[in-house]
Design the sequence.
């Protein structure tokens, strides 16, 4: 009946292996970027920022997998939390520009001068401090997710209706952030960043360090997510996913369990967004576009829903594919993505991770259809 | 109100879209009692269970459990007070193992953060071992519950109910779809459970009700038609009328 087993998909070994692989890859690439340019192993700034972008997206995918794969909440608006984290970091980076902006104002970012604002709006207070930005990066998405989740889960909104309102949430935020009056740079968003904590954002060393930091934080998020789903709470989430009303008669409040994982997931997404902005160098309302959230669900589906590692793998591979594909045949990328999603749904319901397990240990012959899927997983 | 009653439903009525599913129903259960509820389809048996467990709120009447008003509480709160419910269709968590199912059911931690930090204690291990033994599922302990037979799922669900350590168990058609041997084994199990807990069983199977050997309440059109031993109610002309007269 249910294709998602819990034991195997939460395999601790797999998650540790993936966390180490992510850190080694990020560290290796960062080291390669510091080699002199003539060296055959030299990695260009372009490649480094691309890798940073993939790893940031992997955090978004991980966040989606936590709520979709384990709690059954099909979110179609998770990029909203990613973008909010990005804006929180972007505000700090804007303030770091200081008097080096076009208008040379040490206090106000350029776009505010352009709008002839005289002082910073209250919500920009403290944005010159990195520590405050670091708090906002997780606090703002967490708070929004808390309010949204509390209202939605308490009213027992679930299934496709919940998916639709998550989509509406990100769309509404996109429209709001397009407004110049909101104080986040409107259409252009936040960009032209110069440095972070005094280090030049365009210097190879800064970029290398940012990539390593992203790798480490992604690995840490993976382990934290594994801790959550590997705990008794993880069992409760799976129980809520598969038979929500039954958990109520055991004395659990499923809305609380969902709220907890939802907020945690939004925080991981926000962290991913913050790392994204430092390496991509721009955040604008386009990041709230509904299509971004939907793409992040596809990454998870391709990698393997409810596996954590699959989310990371899917995000990296699909985005790598996107980069290559859009270079060769830009007009066909969306068709390719759609085809990929259809093929995954039809032929690889458990994604690449499911394929991997199948190859390593095919399911035994003599089982009822219900267990066929679960027993194909490694224990 | 008599406070020495375990469960005390008085003059309860519920209307769904003009249809009176429960009509001035009164039912009392003493601590330690087992009661069988029978009645034709649509008599209100499941709705009565829904009212006791907080799934449905009565329009009028009172429902007291150990002297506490249940009509203001929701399902989790009522479950935590000590009322366990077994549904007609076994609902176990298919993706979780038998042990994990039992672990979730164990009376104890329920708040999300506490559940997140909970580690399996020696006491919990022992309780699970006892439940595995009771339900004869020791060999299946680490198997996913989704792969078990219908009867095994029924037993696992009964084990989960026991894990909740409720004072009152509501059991909805436990032997539907079971073989005769399984039916009799289930009757034995319920009698065993009844030694320490009160039980309300809804069941159509008269052989099963007879095997339980307890007082019977006959529901009809949302109210109590007759109450007493199985032989007494079977001889009641009104009961015969309801069962045979249509």
Sequence:
């Amino acid at each position: 009946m249910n294709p998602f087993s819990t034991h195997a998909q939460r395999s601790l070994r797999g998650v540790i292996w993936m966390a180490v692989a992510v850190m080694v890859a990020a560290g290796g690439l960062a080291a390669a970027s510091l080699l002199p340019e003539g060296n055959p192993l030299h990695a260009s700034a372009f490649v480094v920022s691309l890798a940073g972008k993939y790893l940031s997206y992997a955090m978004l995918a991980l966040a989606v997998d936590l709520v979709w794969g384990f709690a059954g909440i099909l979110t179609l608006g998770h990029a909203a939390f990613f973008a909010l984290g990005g804006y929180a970091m972007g505000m700090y980076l804007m303030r770091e520009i200081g008097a080096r902006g076009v208008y040379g104002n040490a206090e106000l970012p350029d776009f505010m001068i352009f709008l002839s604002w005289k002082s910073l709006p209250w919500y920009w207070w403290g944005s010159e401090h990195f520590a405050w930005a670091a708090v906002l990066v997780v606090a703002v998405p967490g708070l929004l997710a808390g309010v949204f989740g509390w209202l939605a889960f308490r009213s027992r909104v679930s299934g496709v209706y919940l998916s639709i309102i998550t989509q509406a949430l990100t769309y509404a935020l996109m429209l709001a952030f397009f407004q110049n009056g909101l104080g986040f740079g409107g259409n252009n968003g936040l960009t032209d960043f110069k440095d972070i904590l005094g280090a030049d954002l365009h210097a190879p060393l800064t970029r290398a360090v940012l990539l390593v930091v992203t790798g480490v934080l992604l690995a840490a998020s993976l382990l934290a997510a594994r801790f959550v789903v590997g705990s008794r709470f993880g069992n409760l989430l799976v129980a809520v996913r598969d038979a929500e009303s039954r958990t109520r008669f055991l004395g659990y409040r499923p809305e609380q369990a969902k709220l907890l994982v939802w907020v945690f997931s939004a925080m991981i997404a926000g962290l991913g967004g913050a790392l994204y902005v430092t390496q991509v160098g721009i955040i604008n309302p386009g990041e709230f576009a509904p299509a971004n959230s939907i793409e992040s669900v596809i990454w998870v589906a391709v990698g393997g829903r409810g596996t954590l590692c699959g989310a990371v793998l899917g995000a990296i591979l699909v985005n790598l594919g996107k980069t290559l594909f859009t270079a060769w045949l830009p007009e066909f990328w969306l068709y390719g993505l759609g085809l990929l999603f259809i093929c995954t749904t039809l032929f690889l319901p458990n994604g690449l991770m499911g394929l991997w397990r199948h190859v390593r240990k095919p399911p035994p012959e003599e089982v009822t259809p219900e267990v066929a899927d679960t027993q194909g997983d490694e224990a | 109100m008599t406070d020495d009653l375990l469960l005390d439903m008085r003059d309860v009525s519920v209307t769904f879209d003009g249809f009176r599913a429960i009509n001035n129903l009164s039912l009392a259960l003493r601590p330690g009692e087992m009661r069988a509820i029978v009645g034709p389809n649509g008599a209100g048996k499941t709705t009565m269970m829904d009212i006791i467990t907080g799934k449905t709120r009565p329009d009028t009447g009172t429902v007291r459990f150990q002297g506490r008003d249940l009509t203001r509480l929701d399902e989790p709160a009522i479950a935590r007070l000590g009322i366990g419910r077994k549904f007609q269709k076994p609902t176990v968590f298919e993706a979780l193992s038998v042990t994990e199912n039992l672990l979730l059911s164990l009376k104890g931690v329920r708040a999300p953060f506490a559940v997140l930090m909970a580690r399996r204690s020696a006491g919990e291990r022992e309780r699970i071992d006892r439940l595995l033994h009771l339900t004869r599922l020791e060999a299946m302990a680490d198997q996913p519950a989704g792969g078990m037979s219908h009867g095994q799922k029924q037993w696992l669900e009964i084990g989960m109910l026991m894990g909740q350590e409720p004072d009152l168990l509501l059991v909805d058609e436990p032997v539907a779809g079971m073989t005769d041997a399984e039916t009799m084994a289930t009757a034995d199990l319920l009698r065993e459970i009844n030694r320490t807990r009160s039980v309300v069983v809804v069941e159509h199977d008269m052989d099963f009700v007879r095997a339980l050997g307890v007082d019977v309440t006959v529901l009809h059109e949302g109210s109590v038609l007759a109450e007493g031993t199985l032989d007494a109610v079977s001889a009641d002309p009104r009961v015969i009328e309801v069962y045979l007269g249509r």
